[in-house]
Amino acid sequence: MEIADLVSPAGVLARLKAANKKQVLQELASRAARIVGIEEKTIFNVLLEREKLGSTGVGQGVAIPHGRLAGLNRLHGFFARLDPAVDFESIDQGPVDLVFMLLAPEQAGADHLKALARVSRFLRDKAMCERLRGADGPDALFAILTDGPRSHAA
């Protein structure tokens, strides 16, 4: 599974402005609702419930919020570069500026875990994160996210 299998151009935001983690999740839920056809509130609530188990801020300025939803027929990814970075209660206590949200069908099981692992490996690559931070807009971000050979970097 590749990042290109998860994200579409419409699911990439280049300069998301939000005051805090909750607002980031709300904005991403709003974008996702338009794409996947599930109510924004339902998506937002699933993300909030997951955050109650522990922050999805994985460190180095990266967060990977995720959740499972009834009504989805496949995995969906959404990426946002935040401007400015926000407190996400990350494990390293640092602010987050790169967010990859993953939504999975309720019955996804191993596919959900494989996708999370893939996204995590991708965003652990410091050079890749610097490329994402330096990209000009959503088209450039999408190109970096889906650039075949380079998306294998781990």
Short description:
With 154 residues, the protein is an alpha/beta fold.
Helical content band? 40-55%
Largest sheet: 6 strands, mixed
Low-confidence stretches: 149-154
Quantity of strands, as a count: 6
Structural class comes to alpha/beta
CATH topology type: Mannitol-specific EII, Chain A
Q: Give the tally of structural domains.
A: 1
Q: What's the shape?
A: globular
CATH class assignment: Alpha Beta
Q: Output the CATH homologous superfamily.
A: Mannitol-specific EII, Chain A
- Tell me the Rg in angstroms: 14 Å
Number of helices: 5
Strand content: 25-35%
The ordered H/E elements are: EHHEEEEEHHH
CATH architecture: 3-Layer(aba) Sandwich
Quick check: average pLDDT? Answer: 92
Write the layout of secondary structure elements.
Elements: E1 7-16, H1 21-36, H2 40-53, E2 57-59, E3 62-63, E4 66-69, E5 76-87, E6 95-105, H3 110-124, H4 126-134, H5 138-146
Parallel strand pairs: 1-5, 3-6, 4-6
Antiparallel strand pairs: 2-3, 5-6
Helix pairs in contact: 1-2
